Description:
The protein is mainly beta. It is built from no helices and 9 strands.
Amino acid sequence: MAIVNFKQGSKLRIAISVTHPDYTMDDYDFEVKLYINSTSEYIIFSKSELLRESENRYIALLDTSIFKDKKGVIRYEFIPKITTDVGDVEPIIGKESCIAIVR
C-alpha cells in the first residue's frame, strides 16, 4: 500500500477491504477505528456508516480536520463481530493498517 501525504482538512475516501476464507464483509457486523498514531484522537465508523462498494470492500469518508491540527500516520483498526451459538466472537482479521500521513 502506498503512503500518501495529505494536508490537514483533506477529505479522504478510505477503502476498507478484508478477506477471510469463510466469510465476506457482508456476512458480519464490524466497526472501523481511524486514528493518528501517537495521539488519543480517533473516530469509529460502524458498518452502516460506510459506503458499500462490494461484498469485501467498504469506503469510509474521512475529513482529516477532525484530528484538530494533529500530524502523523493515519491508521485503521478493523473490529469485526461475529455472533455464534456460544456468543460473540471477535476474530483477528486485518487488525491494523497504515493509510496516509497527515502533515
